[in-house]
Amino acid sequence: MWKRIGRESCKSFEACWHERVYTWLWRKKRVAIATVLAMEPKILVFDEPFANLDFQGKKMLRELIEKFRGEKTIVLSSTKLNILHFVIG
């Protein structure tokens, strides 16, 4: 059945549902970040930016933050210290 809807990688309905939700959330965050970056702000504020992202999404966001580290002031809040260490390096 999953092959018929183009989700060969999904093992179950629940797995496909989670994949779609995480993809949607990451796309929503990317659009929000792109909108803010288009305004060319001097300060970037991220509140729990890694919430609901898979590893690939976290990696891409970390790379984006690293790109702007020297150019802009970045304020990042997180309830998890390991996320802050992940960003800081």
Secondary-structure topology with pairs:
Elements: H1 13-38, E1 43-47, H2 55-68, E2 73-77, H3 81-88
Parallel strand pairs: 1-2
Taking all residues together, what is the mean pLDDT?
Answer: 77
Helical content class: 40-55%
H/E series, N to C? HEHEH
Our count of helices gives 3
What percentage of amino acids are in beta strands?
Answer: 5-15%
Q: How many domains is the backbone divided into?
A: 1
Radius of gyration: 16 Å
Distance between the termini: 43 Å
Tags for this model:
89 residues; mainly alpha; two-stranded parallel ribbon; 3 helices; globular; disordered N terminus
Can you offer a commentary on this structure?
The chain has 89 residues and is mainly α. It has one domain (13-88). The chain has three helices and two strands. The chain has helices at residues 13-38, 55-68, 81-88, and strands at 43-47, 73-77. A two-stranded parallel ribbon has the order 1-2. β1 (43-47), α2 (55-68) and β2 form a beta-alpha-beta unit. The radius of gyration is 16 Å and the shape is globular. The relative contact order is 0.12. The model is unreliable at 1-5 (pLDDT under 50).
